[in-house]
Amino acid sequence: MATVAADGRPVTVATWYLLEEDGHVTLGLDAKRARLKHLHADPRVSLTVLARDDWYSHVSLQGRVLSITDDVGLRDIDRLARHYTGDAYTNRERARVTAQVEIERWHVWGKLRDL
């Protein structure tokens, strides 16, 4: 996940995501992380999803965060954690938020282009 810092530099971090049926992307974020400040100031975001067996093959998405809401009861981060690990999110102490991203453009590279 890439965001834009206040001074204009790009900042990237690994992030759990889910592509929803409505075409939006759900992100679960720690409520105290710097990237959340970046998104409030500039909602532009980019995600790159790598193929599991071939990191050269990927889908890259660019879009904007439409909303950032409190993750009440950690429902969204639990859904993300179950998707990635099979279990609920383990850290129940820190506040979480959910960001909904609208995809504005995307491209595919490598063997994924043939799907």
Automatic annotation (TrEMBL):
InterPro entries in the record: F420H2_bilvrd_red/Heme_oxyg, Pyridox_Oxase_N, Split_barrel_FMN-bd
Domain of life: Bacteria
Residue ranges of every copy of the Pyridoxamine 5'-phosphate oxidase N-terminal domain listed in the record: 1-109
Gene3D superfamilies xref list: Electron Transport, Fmn-binding Protein, Chain A (2.30.110.10)
Pfam family, one: PNPOx_N
Assigned keywords, A-Z: Oxidoreductase
Name recorded for this polypeptide: Pyridoxamine 5'-phosphate oxidase N-terminal domain-containing protein
Organism field: Asanoa iriomotensis
